Amino acid sequence: MTNTNPFMDFKNNPFFDPKNNPFLNPENNPFSGKEFTKMFEKFDAKAFDLPELKLEEIFAAQQKNFEAVAAANKAAVEGVQAIFAKQADTLNKVIEESKDVISEMTAAGEPQDKIAKQADLTKEALEKSVATMREIAELIASSQSEAFDILNTRLNAQLDEFKSVVKKPAAPAKSKKAAA
Fold first, then answer.
1. Would you tell me how many other CB atoms lie within 10 Å of the CB of residue 121?
2. For residue range 103-141, what is the model confidence (pLDDT) as tens digits?
3. What is the dihedral of CA 95, 101, 105, 108, to 10 degrees?
4. Cβ proximity of 63 and 120 under 8 Å
5. Distance set, CA 108 to CA 51, 100, 105, 114 (Å)
6. Which of 3, 34, 35, 57 minimizes the number of CB atoms within 10 Å of its CB?
7. For 11-48, how does the pLDDT look when each residue is reduced to its tens digit (9 = 90+)?
8. CB proximity list for 102: less than 8 A, separation 6 or greater
């Protein structure tokens, strides 16, 4: 037994029947054809005191938006690459230091001396780990901050551009004769 959604049953749902739904019937659809577009033929933005849209400026602003997003993405990718490089460098150092630690720990000596040495090495490794984590956290914060600053600068510039594009022209001053 198939359980289907009755709303998606195109054959039996009356909404999908052009006889019941004028939007599916091109002859009865109020938004198709020339009737709908006739409403806007005589539309005059100046009659409503709306600002004139300057498409060239809008397209230029969008181009700047794309450039800002690309620059922010580049900064983010560079940050990730720096983090990966730091992690790879840290891993190489750990491997080299591990070799030295193993050779020190396997050298002949008293058990008490080995335990003390192991405690010193553990403390040193922990301090290095915390310092490395701090450096990586700083790289992450720096990368995020740089990308955010790029986008924030563009957003502020875009708001200024928007104000200038949408700024309404000053209404002409009424003369005293016209007012009388």
1. 15
2. 877 877 788 888 888 888 889 889 999 999 999 999 999
3. 110
4. no
5. 87, 15, 8, 9
6. 3
7. 777 777 777 777 777 777 766 666 666 766 766 666 66
8. none
Residue 32 DSSP code = S
Nearest-angstrom CA–CA distance, 87 and 163: 46
**H or E element that contains 15:** none
Whether 151 and 73 have beta carbons less than 8 Å apart is answered as: no
- Is 7:1 a contact under the CB 8 Å cutoff? no
Residue 47 is which amino acid? A
Structure tokens at 22: 């004028």
- Counting beta carbons within 10 angstroms of the beta carbon of residue 65, is it exposed (0 to 12), middle (13 to 18) or buried (19 or more)? middle
Amino acid making up residue 4: T
Query: What count of Cα atoms within 13 Å lies in the side-chain half-sphere of residue 158?
Result: 18
Name 147's Cβ contacts closer than 8 Å, sequence gap at least 6: 72, 73, 75, 76, 79
Residue with tokens 């403390």: 123
pLDDT band at 81 (very low <50, low <70, confident <90, very high): very high
